[in-house]
Amino acid sequence: MTAKNDQELLLSLAQGDDSALDLFFKRHSNKVYNYALKRNFNGEQAQDLVQIVFLQIYRKRAQYNPKYAALAWLYVITRSELKDYRLRELKEFTEFDDSLSQTPAHVPINEQREEVSHYMADLSEKERQIVEDRYINEMEYEEIARKLNESESNIRQIVSRSLKFLRKKHTTKPTGGDL
Fold first, then answer.
1. pLDDT, tens digit, for every residue of 26-46?
2. Which pTM does this prediction carry?
3. How many separate domains does the chain show?
4. Using a CB cutoff of 8 Å and minimum separation of 24, what contacts does 17-26 make?
């Protein structure tokens, strides 16, 4: 089995040989893990992504087409799952304070903005603008990048770091005895 190349392993997997996945995993799980780390995942998130990717490979084993390189197929799945992981993370963050989404309709928009501004006050001006453009103005990353003359990946990083910072800061319970 170890003499098989990656394409042969995926074909064996598609034909029902589950041990082919074990070998494919041993050969390439580290590549997926490092790919995630390079895209600002922490170690735990990268491990999650590795598990998700190889589960998807197993689920889609019958869809592998040997005319394409096995690693190309692996990276297509990895990129897709990485994007989905980020979207789930973002959705969870945007729901972190339900009180904002439950603001009564009769509350003036200026008061709603003040409440959101309270959360974002700890961000730099640039971070605040990028987050506002993304979530309040509903701009795409590409549009924000063009507007600020930055790379799209840099804008994504700024958004990701800002959300992590806000999540950490505003979900931590205050310590002390002032009740």
1. 999 999 999 999 888 888 989
2. 0.53
3. 2
4. 18/58, 21/54, 21/57, 21/58, 21/61, 24/54, 24/57, 24/70, 25/54
